[in-house]
Amino acid sequence: MTTGYEHPTLKMYVTAEQRDRAENWLQEAYADGRVEPREFDYRMGQVLGAVTRKDLNEAFYGLVPVAATSQALGIHPAYQPLVRPELRQQAGRGVAAAAHFSVFFVWLLGPGLVYAASPAGSYARREAAKAFNFQVISTVLILGDMLLGAVTGADAFGWIFGAMVVSWFVLTVVGGAKALQGENWKNPVSRVDRLKLLAE
Questions:
Q1: Whole-model pTM above 0.70?
Q2: What is the rounded average pLDDT of the residues 56-69?
């Protein structure tokens, strides 16, 4: 930080979220071998005892290079989010919804790619798993109905097929809409389905 002048934000109190990010950063640095055990204990003590942003910044002096823009704003990159939490949350909901709606264009490939690309435990990953599992069971049921209809020749399977396709479409749209709203909606088909290829 620059000497002689302190940005007003340095006097702001440390939030619980900032402290958590600082702790996580130090723990990752320790796990990667970038921080020795004694230094880790000392810096972690500074993080836990920090009251203001200036106090929290001191826990990272000499450890993390601080860009001039961050210095001017009194912000340390080790505990500041790259994206505002509300924007990150909106982005997560958008990706989650895309996992559901993508099946109309690329079927299982859409939710499968979102699942693979999303961090473990994230909202987008959970919703992608839900979308993938629902599409698998829907496909199995619809193909099974078509096969039975072809074998038996019964008209009833034609009616069942139509109802299943409409239900599939409606439930897929509802799943995407609920994901866009950030809700933890449970698909009624998935509730009774034990076939879950991806962990939700």
A1: no
A2: 76
